[in-house]
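thread: overnight batch results

M.L. [08:02]
morning all. the overnight job finished for the chain we discussed friday. pasting input first so we're all looking at the same thing
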Amino acid sequence: MNRRVLLLAVAWLTIRAAMLWLLVHDSVPLLGRGAVAREVWRLYFHWFGVLSRGAFPAHDTLWQYPPGAGAVLLAPGLLPWLTYFQAFVTLTLAADAVIGLVLARSGTLPGRSLRGAALWVGALPLLLHLPLARYDVQVTAFAVISLLTLSRSPRACGVFAAVGGLVKVWPALVLLGVPRGRATRSAWTWAAGAGMLVLGTLTGLFNNPLAFLRQQGSRGVQIESLGGTALSLARHAGWTGRARYRYGAVELVGPHVSAVATASLALTAVACALLVLWRVRARRWTEATPYDAALCAVLLFTVTSRVISPQYMIWLLGLAAVCLTSRHTVQRGVTALVVAASAVSAVAYPALYREVVGCTWTGCLLMLLRNGLLATAAVLSLVRLWRATRPAAGKTAPVNEPPSGSDRLPHRALSTRRRAVTHHSYDSGTWTPCTQPSRSLRTSAWSSSGTTTPPM
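M.L. [08:03]
and the structure it wrote out:
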């Protein structure tokens, strides 16, 4: 096992060095002509200057992030001996390494798998150098750590999810799959408390912390979204709209765009309702259920969003990696679709982004393929999650350990954990341990009982 971890570490160093090389040669046409790196040294650095003066960029239409993002963008100032760009990339690599480390640590636990760490190390470079020039890796780190700390400390899970949510909202969704009862109360309570504490601190230190809400409401339909793909195809059927740079993304403007944006919001509401319904009706949890639910929720909200930027794939790869750390996950097929969509995303941006913006047939087919893969993954994820957690009369859900927050096993069952196969069934909000002794223990009991028929 140690050899596998060592190989993963060597692979991480080699692959990240290649990603850094791509970032240095960002001006190559197929790598975006410098557009990928430009966001850091031009836009992020500009916001760094504004934030350093104690205010959020309230009048900048490109500022659309929760107040926690300000702390992440100020963090490169902790490395004053480097340029802002160098410091930002260094901290991004550090967050990337932390994700790989916690995935590997989880993968070495009994009953777990290193496939999650391998996925993160090997699949992230499918997005080329983009992950190094966006702060989505840092955001993903909060979500990954939140999920992987759930089994040990629901409180820590809630805190990391809340802080991540204040940086980019979506990490708060990882709390959806926390098992009912004590774990949910603990995680959600600590999330609320930590969120209010951090938000209050940022409000006291900076002016205009909620200015981002004004910009979010004005966003339209990004060209890479599901609705944007439909409108791009409509151009070949006579639609008269066009692409225009607005609010930090290329959006489509013209007739019926507002209707498409409204439809996207309606689909998001439907996705939210389905997730709430799943939460209410779910009856069986395994150790992988919180992970699977997090991936499903983020997939649904991503697919139905008016904006599907290529860096969103970083989130999905991180959550898919968490799912693969558990042998009980039902999201393996979903993970394959996410990896395929990530590869297509790198072709669409930055390599052929002009084709996408120009709504050429090549650009339209690329986005149709990428978004089709994501939509399929979202539907498949929800179906598998629903089936895995639905009630099953007369059956139990076998897992290695009860999820965090479940009732404690009796002392006798704990003392014989290595010699027994333990099953847990979730019924009416209670985990019930049912310890089945191994065959050697049953044979011993039979011999001492004086019966003539051995147990089957």
